[in-house]
Amino acid sequence: MDAIVKMLEKHQPFFEKISRNIYLxxxxxxxxxxxPIVLTSSIFLLIAxxxxxxxxxxxxxxxxxxxxxxxxxxxxxGIMVAGTTAKNFTASMNRRMPAxxxxxxxxxxxxAQCSMLLLAVTxxxxxxxxxxxxxxxxxxxxxxxxFSAYIAAFITVWVxxxxxxxxxxxxxxxxxxxxIAQNFRDIIPFGGAVIICGIIDVVVRNLMGVPFSELLIKxxxxxxxxxxxxxxxxxxxxxxxxxxxxxVHGPSIVQPGIDPIRLANQAENLQVxxxxxxxxxxxxxxxxxxxxxxxxxxxFIVPLxxxxxxKSKQLKAVGKASIVPVAFAVNEPLLFxxxxxxxxxxxxxxxxxxxxNVSVAKFFIDNVxxxxxxxxxxxxxxxxxxxxxxxxxxxxxxxxxxxxxxxDAIIYLPFLKAYDKLLCDQEAERAAELGLESDGAASIxxxxxAPAIEQTAAAVEPTAAAADSKPVADQPEPxxxxxxxxxxxxxxxxxxCAGAGTSAMLANAIKEGAAQTGENIASSAGAYGQHTAIMxxxxxxxxxxxxxxxxxxxxxxxDRLGIKLLAPRGxxxxxxxxxxxGAIKWLRENLD
Length: 592
Description:
- This protein is mainly alpha-helical.
- The chain has helices spanning 2-10, 12-19, 22-33, 35-49, 60-71, 77-94, 105-120, 146-165, 178-185, 187-208, 212-227, 230-245, 250-274, 288-291, 302-309, 313-327, 332-337, 347-368, 383-390, 395-433, 441-447, 461-464, 466-469, 502-517, 551-561, 570-577, 580-589, and strands spanning 122-128, 131-137, 492-497, 522-527, 540-543, 564-566.
- Helix 4 (35-49) runs antiparallel to helix 5 (60-71).
- The longest helix has 39 residues, at 395-433.
- It is globular and about 90 Å long.
């Protein structure tokens, strides 16, 4: 097992390179930027539909109003994603542009939205009250048009890059104000992007008789069908867990390619449910509640297993510290505290648990009558609650939840016990070295300056700590004692992770530490990809371990803006979240 993990560790840079692919990043960050649309629209949909489940009849005007809000938000999701994807892709492209040449992200955003409409929307005329009206077919403006949105965004930014790199712009005299001159500079690339997408639209409609968005769906439907089989669901879940296991944020790699079909399937499930049918799609957006039950690796039950069944002081401490965050799908304290990342004892259960969960979910949907997920709930919703809500409050869903909790416990327990025995032996050895009895291992932590959760000992250190042993870029060494007195008064700190959950832990610790030490420090949490518009308001940006692979890209932006960038390693990050005063000291030590 150690040999397998060492081999995976050796190829970690390759997988990190995949995660930093600018197309995947743009899709992920673009979609993340539109998550408020998904979540807000779902709230209004729940208001309109769920009271009927318990026999409450709302006034029809209120139902119509809620449905209108849903349709006018979720119904234009594709258009919005085209813009946010183009904006994020522009930011990545600007890092690769020649000096002095910059793409206007506001212009690329609008151009991509216009181009997406050309590729996805059909316009026709109809009679209404005796008058001719021009009508848009809105079918592909929403989630059905996401693939067209991505294509439009990429074409647009590449056209802008081509034109700006070669100075194919309209140049005005230097006396013309910059804002006006920029508008004229954008005319040629804007027109070029729209014309290219317009030509694609004409060709596809004349040759295939369908809009480009429908053509993409037809071409990709065999892949989507395969993805919704047992092997397909297992492969998706296994890949997500595998990438996380080697220290690369798995959802960022796997999910961008399947998010359009997951959202489209969930929307179709909703239509079927509202029509009184059985929602049968299993590959849906909130299937992550099942495959990532408590976080990637299906770790929901693991903290409780650590508390109840483990004897190691380290694992019991990890269980107590992580049980609440894991309940809300923030499982980094467990992943880096146990550790589970690159821990040879955890490879099999970490990958297998989620695969078993999605297989059981598909069986329940196909054969037991459980609804496929129809409503969208926030990713941080406790998984049992989220599953119950999004299946329209079916009692069978609670049975399903109980079964997968039991299965996950059965999968994890033998491997945790084996790992626990290793740690107990190591704790006993340390106690013996200090002339203590084996049950005095708890005194060791008190007699040293190490954190409560210690580093894994010799047999595990080479693998479990491997993700942190090769930093993306050299980090500054801890400063001398004198540097600990550096002034951090008035400092503004932004902590970034993949979904603003893990980052909130450190941001809150910094706030608490500032209050304890009397420092005037402001800290905020955010999601990587949504930071570009606000990062210039901060003095320090901290990358959580799950987005640490983006360090080099982020460094280019922070150096340009004169912002200090820090990227603590996995266990170091978790320790800082539990030590507010230590977090403030760490900030002082790492300031230039």
